[in-house]
Amino acid sequence: GSGLPIYKEHEGFWRKHELAKANRDYLRGLYGIIKGSARHVRFVFVTGITMFSKVSLFSGLNNLEDISLDPQYATLCGYTERELETVFALELLGIDRDEIRTRYYGYRWQGEETVYNPFDVLLLLKKRVFRSWWFETGSPDFLYRLIVERGMNPIELEHRPIDAERLANFDVGDIDLMALMFQAGYLTIGGEERAGADTFYALEYPNLEVRRSFSKGFLSHLGQREAATEANALLVLLARLDFRGFGERLQAYLAGLPYQWLGAGKLGEYEAHYAAMLYLAFSAVGSDVRVEDASSRGRADMVLLHGGRVYVLEFKMARDREGVDAAMDRALSQMRERGYGERYRARGEPIHLVGVVFGREERNLLAVEAEHC
């Protein structure tokens, strides 16, 4: 409507707090009008991607009940498994149910049930084609910019605990990246933990659509539009057990990566930067890749399940080329001694321990070595 400040991309909207506050104040006035007409209003339902604090935005309408994380309403905005099987039973004929679940299932909001993304399901039933229908409705470029500006490792986006109050709050002057990703639908609640009177949530990608598309989009934001091609080539080499070829291809891939994060978090000095790039590439092609994989005796840097094999990867940083052998010995012995591959024995698949050593000065891969576990 007239009077509402217009967002222009080139103005750096989120850095101009005054403009953001003006938008907030405009909406506060709108809700104030509703409150002033309360005798004529029986029910108001407000929804959107951000949960503004009632103090800052709804002071003119202070009798709202926030049901965002209320278990009673956890299935309000998605399809449950039962609803899919009953309401859409005929429409689902001929469509792979497991693939629907893998791609579009996984949203949780404190309730006992998990739900499907309804937008994806409806477009799938109409078009009869699997695509990232919801993700394609808009690109989260702002989130990508925040990740780069704050020097945040993409691996840390999952399973990082966040305070319940922080998760439900949105302040134009203090934006929490994790809370914003949750409110916008890119992360969902994966677990809950209580510490005294406080509640913490572990967030995770809800499904394959979001994980794959978000990773692919972020790599594209970094200028790596061929990352998916490189990831597929790396997977082929691993499936052939060609670890030398894998190392050479990975070295070429890393040589072409930008270092936008160096100014903020200096991640390029540590193995975390390179692990993040490999994680994004594998995630972008939908691989089953797990980071900081916990066992009873420690955490493996990365585990990749692919082609009927298990690859356990440990990353180390060498100060110079003379320290490569020592770093590789540490990587392989750490995986052996702590039994990083043992939790996957029940799969009955070959397990390979892969040591990967990077150079601090070279800023690239120096060595790859593997052994059968």
What does this protein look like?
There is one protein chain. With about 375 residues, the protein is an alpha+beta fold. The protein is about 35% helix and about 20% strand. It is built from 13 helices and 10 strands. It has helices at about 15-35, 55, 80-85, 95-105, 120-125, 140-150, 165, 175-185, 210-220, 225-240, 245-255, 270-285, 325-335; strands at about 105, 115, 160-165, 190-195, 200-205, 290-295, 300-305, 310-320, 350-360, 365-370. It has a 5-stranded mixed sheet, with helices on both faces. The longest helix is centred in the first third of the chain and has 20 residues, at about 15-35. It is globular.
| Secondary structure tally, helices | 13
- Euclidean distance between termini CA atoms: 65 Å
Largest sheet properties? 5 strands, mixed
Secondary structure category: alpha+beta
Total number of beta strands:
10
Residue share in β-strands: 15-25%
> Gyration radius, to the nearest Å?
23 Å
Q: What topology, given as strand order, has the largest sheet?
A: 6-7-8-9-10
| Poorly predicted regions | 1-14, 261-265
Mean pLDDT rating: 84
Helix and strand run:
HHHHEEHHEHHEEHHHHEEEHEE
Tertiary shape: globular
Helical proportion? 25-40%
Please outline the helices and strands.
Elements: H1 17-36, H2 54-57, H3 81-87, H4 97-104, E1 105-107, E2 115-116, H5 118-127, H6 141-149, E3 161-163, H7 164-167, H8 177-183, E4 188-195, E5 198-204, H9 208-221, H10 227-239, H11 243-255, H12 271-284, E6 288-295, E7 298-306, E8 309-318, H13 324-337, E9 351-359, E10 364-372
Parallel strand pairs: 8-9
Antiparallel strand pairs: 1-2, 3-5, 4-5, 6-7, 7-8, 9-10
Helix pairs in contact: 9-12, 10-11, 10-12
